Description:
Bound molecules: magnesium ion
Number of domains: 2
Strand content: 15-25%
Shape: globular
Order of helices and strands: HEHEHHEEEEHEHEHEEEHHEEEEHH
Number of strands: 15
CATH superfamily of the largest domain: Alkaline Phosphatase, subunit A
Helix content: 25-40%
Largest sheet: 11 strands, mixed
Amino acid sequence: MESTSRRAFLGQVAASALAAPVRKSNVVLIFADDLGYGDLGCYGGKARTPNLDRLAREGMRFTQFLSANPVCSPSRAALLTGRYPTRVGMPRVLFPTDQTGLPEDEQTIAQMLKPLGYKTMCVGKWHLGHLEKFLPTNRGFDEYYGIPYSNDMQPRPLLHSVPGKVETVEATANLETLTAHYTEQATGFIERSKDSPFFLYMPHTYPHIPLGASAKFRGKSRQGLYGDVIEELDWSVGEILATLKKHHLERDTLVLFSSDNGPWYQGSPGALRGRKGSTYEGGVREPFIARMPGRVAAGKVCDSLGSAMDMMPTIAKLCGATLPNKALDGIDLWPLLSGQKTTLDRDALLYFDAWNAQCIRRGNYKLHVSRYNSQVYSPAPAAGRINLPLPQPELYDLSSDPDESYDIAPEHPGIVKELAAILEAKLAGFPEEVKSAYATTHGKKTRGNVGTFPALIP
Length: 458
Ligand code: MG
């Protein structure tokens, strides 16, 4: 018996030695900027998005996926670190005058994958620090091509960088050719990296304003320039999918698509209330599509709550990477993606605007406790833009009231109290700025002429 077992064992060893080494999975993470929940065809939008619609048909489409913040820089910080932006010192949008960036002691998805031999590239809008030491090439990416911040900021250089070297491709980026150039860079990177595991992070500049589309797309949609831009983004996704197919990489590659925050002046949040800069769902609910034939269940729609902060643990699981030794706020989505589960019991999620915790959501219940007195980037009132407590917390049941129009707090005081207690308990683990902002908003001090409000939990 022993001899037979030994022969069988040796046979297995020989067979495994002859088998091709298991290839690590590739990851393509495409991230739009200011794209509304209702902009894509597969989310009820009016623009033609056949490639993204196909991606959804061949993979899984989420209906309850949240970015971690309603504006650009904080949302990206959370996406790449798996942590709330208020934990990683990135509570607000960065401007070209800022000398800061994503703190160097935070680890990005690219830095997590590099030790495994991944080739990595970032193509598009970085917006986590434009000084060289904060650029992608110092944050785990072998190469970077793009505008380092928003396209409405000046100057607007199109950069190409590798570690230790930054070149200006265009002193002022041409907005009309931008998506085409990004696409060329992204597909070129896949071509160059096809024999190695790779991570492509592609944070598009659009549909953040000012908009620009190439001649091939301009005037072609029925939704004005915004629609043209969406249709060109969809074309870009199609080019990337075609490149993966050409090199037989479809089954080896997890393709993810989402956006950083809701639509601004143009674009559709679907039936949701709120837009960019708001913690109503329209400011943070985003399309999220995942495709990996054979690994991600095909043609499924997932209604379970997901977060952009889940990308790091989800990618780590697929690639066998070691997560950073930090408290992560995201969770591994593979039980959903694989089709093994249709819902996940997850911890409540917080909604921040700047340092302010404005809402908490657990399942379909969402409690709002404070709100700004004006829209982001609108002319501030004389008192300045300040975060104010709501006279009474507002509770919405998103399963029966997806557009947050009917406050049911008076009918459910127990749920209000429970969610408020969870919110306050969670904040105890956040940086001092978060606790201080909360105390200021909900303290007993009089703020201007708005009256005195009691603390949320007396
Ligand atoms: Mg944005």
